[in-house]
């Protein structure tokens, strides 16, 4: 089956599975490690993929949350995500898909320069405009997270957030569903910009 | 501030989505206040930009006078508005700056303004280097060395050149008060130490702030598209791109050179609206180059970082270095750089 559907398999007992899709293998691996270090009542399973569709001959559990990782330094990662989005069923976008953007950060420590001239930060490496990914997330009505995955502290924070989102999407948090979470995350945005 | 009047937007911005109207219809002051209110920084991308044309004011520009600006590598800085800078005091400024430079070079010794030293500083205005009448006049600072030989006419060798300009800086001019002079783009050629000394003097005297202007890959691809779109009578150089592949331990560089007429032919096949460049056209232009390269070498250039773009009009490096080769499009190139500088100041 080339299209991923959210409810085509039985859920595992107390298991929550997340699928991370992106071209940045090293960053995905590090993020997966950070997520698995988190304390969680449910059993976490993290699947990594470069792109969709996933090979159909593998027996895998039901996927509860898909996170597409885009690196602003690489247009290739954006194209890859755009193509992979075609292989996801529309019902997944009811709160079970998220976008994670990396590479937008400025360098924390300005490089030394004579007489107070400071050097430009890593934003100088961006090939994609931030608005492009913001528009992508708005088109797919999915939450957008920004995180510099190369920094340990930020990665641990976003791993915590993803674990929490995953628990909700897998239905392990009583009283909150994935769709509830989606509407909660959306209400903080400017309503004038919602309709693109 | 909650309702944006869409009738403010000019006919060429008859975009379908309200998102674009939101950014373009609002004045810069409204935009700034709105983003402060929401505590977010919205970066409005203009979905289209004008292809550089010969502007009216450039007709007054004497090619001979600005010939020294071409074919030199300039390092770019963005500069916040200068407080209480006056074009009538240029002589005074040159005396003060030469004293400051002499003091820096001989730290610890007492210096008097007006004494004869080995170096001389000149401030002069560059006429015609502006986009609209409202732009501040561009001015040039040069550090010259006086030769030690006892001739009557001493040769002055230029040690360092720096110039300040503002081309189409309307968005910045609207938001500053009368006491400030806006010259957001600063270009320097010469020793780094001299740039630092001059910068420190300006920062102390006019309460401004310099910061190096880096050009990211996104803006470099815009430059490549805009400069390829310029009509040229003859092409002096091939269109060349340089990408840096991020890999350890040392990064690889990939250089891709195209015959300028082929690049122009590719651009013409992509280009639709006359006189303007849109984001889709830039993306399509670059994608054509990437897919051509991928077909031959199986390397995804879109996963690498564009570091340098070089055309017959100008060449730019991501570290903020630029060399302008064509006199005709000087103002156009500077207009785009001014826009980047203003964006960095904000």
From TrEMBL, chain A:
Highest taxon listed in the record's lineage: Eukaryota
Cellular component per GO, a single term: chromosome, centromeric region
Keyword field: Centromere, Chromosome, Nucleus
Compartments, as annotated in UniProt: Chromosome, Centromere; Nucleus
Keyword Nucleus tagged: yes
Classification via PANTHER family: CENTROMERE PROTEIN M (PTHR34436)
Protein name: Centromere protein M
Species annotation: Callorhinus ursinus
Lineage: Eukaryota, Metazoa, Chordata, Craniata, Vertebrata
Gene that produces this protein: LOC112831775
UniProtKB/TrEMBL annotation, chain B:
Major localization listed first in the record, in broad terms: nucleus
GO cellular component: chromosome, centromeric region; nucleus
InterPro entries: CENP-L
Keywords assigned by UniProt, alphabetized: Centromere, Chromosome, Nucleus
Location(s), subcellular: Chromosome, Centromere; Nucleus
Pfam families with a match to the protein in the record: CENP-L
Family: Belongs to the CENP-L/IML3 family.
Cited PANTHER family: CENTROMERE PROTEIN L
Protein name (Swiss-Prot/TrEMBL): Centromere protein L
Organism: Callorhinus ursinus
Name of the gene: CENPL
């Amino acid at each position: 089956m080339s299209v991923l559907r959210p409810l085509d398999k039985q859920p595992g007992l107390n298991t929550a599975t997340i699928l991370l899709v992106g071209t940045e293998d090293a960053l995905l691996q590090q993020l997966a490690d950070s997520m698995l270090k988190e304390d969680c009542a449910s059993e976490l399973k993290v699947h990594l993929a470069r792109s969709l569709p996933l090979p159909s001959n593998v027996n895998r559990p039901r996927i509860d949350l898909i996170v597409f990782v885009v690196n602003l330094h690489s247009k290739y990662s954006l194209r890859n995500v755009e193509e992979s989005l075609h292989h996801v069923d529309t019902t997944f976008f009811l709160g079970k898909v998220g976008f994670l953007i990396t590479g937008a950060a400025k360098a924390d420590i300005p490089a030394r320069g004579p007489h107070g001239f400071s050097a430009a930060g890593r934003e100088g490496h961006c090939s994609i405009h931030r608005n492009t990914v913001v528009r992508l997330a708005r088109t797919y009505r999915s939450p957008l997270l920004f995180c510099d995955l190369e920094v340990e502290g930020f990665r641990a924070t976003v791993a915590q957030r993803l674990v929490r989102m995953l628990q909700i999407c897998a239905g392990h948090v009583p009283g909150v569903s994935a769709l509830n979470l989606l509407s909660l995350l959306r209400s903080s945005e400017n309503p004038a910009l919602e309709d693109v | 501030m909650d309702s944006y009047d869409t009738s403010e937007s000019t006919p060429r911005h008859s975009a379908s989505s309200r998102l674009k109207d939101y950014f373009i219809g609002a004045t810069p002051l409204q935009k700034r206040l709105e983003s402060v209110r929401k505590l977010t920084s919205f970066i409005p991308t203009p979905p289209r930009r004008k292809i550089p044309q010969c502007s009216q004011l450039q007709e007054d520009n004497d090619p001979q006078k600005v010939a020294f600006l071409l074919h030199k590598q300039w390092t770019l800085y963005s500069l916040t508005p200068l407080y209480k800078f006056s074009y009538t005091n240029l002589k005074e400024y040159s005396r003060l700056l030469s004293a400051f430079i002499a003091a820096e070079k001989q730290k610890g010794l007492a210096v008097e303004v007006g004494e004869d030293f080995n170096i001389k500083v000149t401030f002069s205005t560059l006429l015609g280097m502006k986009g609209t009448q409202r732009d501040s006049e561009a001015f040039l600072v040069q550090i010259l060395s006086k030769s030690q030989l006892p001739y009557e006419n001493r040769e002055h060798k230029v040690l360092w050149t720096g110039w300040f300009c503002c081309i189409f800086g309307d968005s910045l001019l609207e938001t500053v008060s009368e006491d400030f002079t806006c010259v957001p783009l600063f270009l320097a050629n010469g020793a780094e130490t001299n740039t630092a000394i001059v910068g420190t003097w300006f920062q102390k005297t006019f309460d401004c702030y310099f910061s190096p202007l880096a050009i990211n890959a996104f803006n470099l691809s815009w430059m490549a598209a805009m400069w390829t779109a310029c009509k040229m009578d003859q092409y002096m150089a091939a269109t060349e791109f340089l990408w840096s592949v991020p890999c350890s331990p040392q990064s690889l560089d990939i250089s891709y050179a195209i015959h300028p007429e082929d690049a122009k032919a590719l651009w013409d096949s992509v280009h639709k609206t006359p006189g303007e460049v849109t984001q889709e056209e830039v993306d399509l232009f670059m994608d054509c180059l990437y897919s051509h390269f991928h077909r031959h070498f199986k390397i995804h250039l879109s996963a690498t970082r564009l570091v340098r773009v070089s055309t017959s009009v100008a060449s730019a490096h991501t570290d903020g270095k630029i060399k302008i080769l064509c006199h005709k499009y000087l103002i156009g190139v500077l207009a785009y750089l001014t826009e980047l500088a203003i964006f960095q100041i904000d």
